[in-house]
Amino acid sequence: MPVSLDFEPSTSHPSGVADRSRRDSAAAGREPDASWITIGLVNNMPDSALSATERQFVALLAAAAGTTRVRLRSYALPDVPRSERGREYVRRSCSPVEELWGTPLDAVIVTGTEPRSRDLRDEPYWPSLTQLFAWAEKNTRSAIWSCLAAHAAVLHLDGIERRPLEDKRFGVFECAVAADALTAGLPRRIRMPHSRWNELPEERLVAAGYRALTRSPGAGVDAFVRKGPSLFLFFQGHPEYEAETLMLEYRRDVKRFLNGERATYPAMPREYFDDRTSEMLSIVRDRALGGRREEAVHELEMALGRAAPTNRWQPAAVRLYRNWLGHLAAQKAGGAAQADALVQRCA
Question: N or C: which end of the chain has fewer CB within 10 A?
Answer without folding.
Answer: C
